[in-house]
Input
Amino acid sequence: MKALVVYFTESGCTRRVAQTIAEATGATLHELKAAEPYTAADLDWRDPGSRVNREANDPTERQSVKLEDTSVPDWDAYDVVFIGAPVWWGVAAWPIDDFLTSNDFTGKKLAAFVTSSSSSFGNESDVKDMAKGAQWLGGKRFPSSASDSAIRSWLESLALLRGDSRTRNDSTPLTSLFGDRYALRRSGRFVVWETCVFSSHRARGCRWNLEIAAVDLQPSGAMHPQPTGIPW
Ligand SMILES: Cc1cc2nc3c(=O)[nH]c(=O)nc-3n(C[C@H](O)[C@H](O)[C@H](O)COP(=O)(O)O)c2cc1C
Output
């Protein structure tokens, strides 16, 4: 797996999440910069006439926001792309839109993350739709100061953590996850239900408990416990 973490940030919170993702997955980091940088006055959400408020209220102004550069060196080599942004007025900050619409995601898996004070990831499906050709892995909102364990837990749910043996075989997420703790995925002929358990003595904080139930996809298949021998 060759992974890339592309992110836009104004005050550094999204960068910190991006760095944790890059460390945990072995990905390359790439920061996006607005062609016309935002000043503090531009970002003043209390001022109804500020640039960010004008853009938030006017789709035409929002769409005209361009990046300094939308290209990434060696783009074709990446098979997994993470894209991150802060939440501005309930949606992923729109400077990333230029990146999403300017690149061809065919053959790439895409996961998106946002950081916010409290709002959810309001436009997750728009982000997915802008990235033409991408295989969508899912989106995730983190608080501005997200914990490493929450970030790693998300990566584990996507089977994208470095050293996760599932990234080296064909274990594909079916639905990604339920909450942060459970995942249903396909592994060979089994559909596997996994539970994420936390272990305080482990540096990583979270590991996947493989004492799981598996459903055999063969016609005779039945639910049966399969604590060992899952082929990944
Ligand atoms: C213009 C602007 C709008 C924002 N809108 C929201 C919002 O709607 N909901 C929210 O929870 N946080 C909002 N925030 C807070 C940021 O999403 C949050 O601080 C984020 O983690 C900042 O990420 P960054 O440091 O990578 O720029 C806003 C911040 C700015 C500057």
Summary: The two ends are 15 Å apart (CA to CA). Helices lie at 13-25, 51-57, 59-63, 95-102, 124-130, 148-157. The pocket of flavin mononucleotide is lined by residues 9-14, 43, 45, 52, 86-90, 115-119, 144 (CB under 6 Å).
